[in-house]
């Protein structure tokens, strides 16, 4: 798979402050990469480096096989779409006027504007002044601006910051549609729970360093967090069940009809197979694997361990 963005041992310093240190990763054509971490982890600095707004202090960075910070690379930004965390649009302009303005800057036909407004759910609001838009509508307008010219690469910095749950769902619906069409997307976010279902790979940043990179399943394996099993059984059968599960599990909660245990991920299939002749007393079983927030916390805690 072709890499549109490659970073090799990239670092960025501001005097004695190191914002990013020794980051090596790539962004492959057609994938959605989530860049996650708390505020100050270095996410926005990486986005600025990819945009060419700042140059790395160390290492090499290539976007479409060019140095984005070089004087000769100004043209490559025509292949980029960027949505900053806080969009700032002129409130007196209508949504349609604003997109036409940006289309002229990108030397794109104004005829595509109405299609973009429809795509982000603003077709009926295109004639309204931006000052009347909600936060969610302004964010969707920002996404439409980023999509002008059908860029090869989309960079979205904290795109759902400040949005209500319904607006977040609408936003990710648009992102998922772009993924299905083969768009290449980098999403920088600290909203871990919501990004989990919308990214092919996750890059975990902590204190300016890349501490993990891979699919959510890859990161789960790296974190080695236990799986939780919750059994609902016929009365007075939790003891039989626990005896059969054996020492591979750790009891979290136990009652007359409830048994909740944890076990290593690699042990769960074998444990369930042990219960063949006990299923008649098991009414229900729920399996809970650690989500991205728990995985992230484990990876960061391991990094901070003395």
Essential attributes:
306 residues; alpha/beta; 6-stranded mixed sheet; 4-stranded antiparallel sheet; 10 helices; 31% helix
Explain this structure.
The structure is a single chain. The strands form 3 sheets. The chain has a 6-stranded mixed beta sheet with strand order 5-6-7-3-8-9, sandwiched between helices. A 4-stranded antiparallel beta sheet has the order 11-12-10-13, covered by helices on one side. Helix 7 crosses helix 10 (292-304). The protein has helices at residues 43-51, 95-105, 113-119, 135-146, 165-180, 192-195, 216-223, 238-245, 268-273, 292-304; strands at 3-14, 17-28, 32-36, 58-63, 80-83, 153-157, 184-189, 201-206, 209-214, 227-233, 250-254, 258-263, 282-288. It is of the alpha/beta class and 306 residues long. Strand 6, helix 5 and strand 7 (184-189) form a beta-alpha-beta unit. The two termini are 38 Å apart.
Radius of gyration: 24 Å
Largest sheet data: 6 strands, mixed
Distance between the termini: 38 Å
Provide the low-confidence segments as ranges.
Answer: none
Strand order of the largest sheet: 5-6-7-3-8-9
Order of helices and strands: EEEHEEHHHEHEHEEHEHEEHEH
Gross morphology: globular
Q: State the helical fraction.
A: 25-40%
Portion in strands: 25-35%
Tally the beta strands. 13
Number of helices: 10
Secondary-structure class: alpha/beta
Average pLDDT taken over every residue: 91
């Amino acid at each position: 798979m072709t890499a549109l963005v490659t970073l090799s041992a990239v670092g960025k310093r501001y005097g004695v402050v190191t914002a990013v240190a020794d980051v090596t990763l790539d962004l492959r054509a057609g994938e959605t990469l989530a860049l996650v971490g708390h505020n100050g982890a270095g996410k926005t600095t990486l986005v600025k480096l990819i945009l060419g707004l700042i140059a790395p202090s160390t290492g090499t960075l290539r976007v479409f096989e060019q140095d984005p910070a070089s004087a000769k690379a100004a043209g490559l930004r025509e292949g980029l779409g960027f949505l900053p965390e806080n969009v700032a649009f002129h409130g007196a302009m209508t949504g349609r006027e604003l997109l036409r303005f940006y289309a002229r800057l990108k030397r794109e036909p104004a005829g595509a504007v109405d299609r973009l407004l429809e795509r982000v759910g603003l077709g009926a609001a295109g004639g309204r002044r931006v000052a009347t838009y909600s936060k969610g509508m302004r964010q969707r307008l920002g996404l439409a601006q980023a999509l002008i010219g059908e860029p090869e690469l989309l960079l979205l910095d904290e795109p759902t910051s400040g949005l209500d749950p319904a607006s977040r769902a609408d936003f990710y619906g648009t992102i998922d549609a772009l993924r299905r069409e083969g768009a290449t997307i980098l999403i920088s976010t600290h909203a871990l729970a919501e990004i989990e279902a919308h990214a092919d790979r996750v890059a975990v940043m902590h204190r300016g360093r890349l501490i993990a990179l891979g699919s959510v399943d890859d990161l789960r394996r790296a974190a080695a967090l236990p799986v939780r099993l919750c059994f609902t059984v016929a009365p007075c059968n939790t003891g039989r069940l626990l005896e059969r599960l054996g020492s591979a599990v750790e009891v979290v909660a136990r009652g007359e009809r409830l048994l909740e245990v944890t076990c290593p991920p690699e042990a769960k299939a074998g444990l369930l197979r042990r219960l063949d002749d006990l299923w008649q007393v098991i009414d229900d079983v729920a399996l809970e694997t650690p989500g991205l927030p728990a995985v992230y916390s484990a990876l960061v805690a391991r990094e901070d361990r003395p």
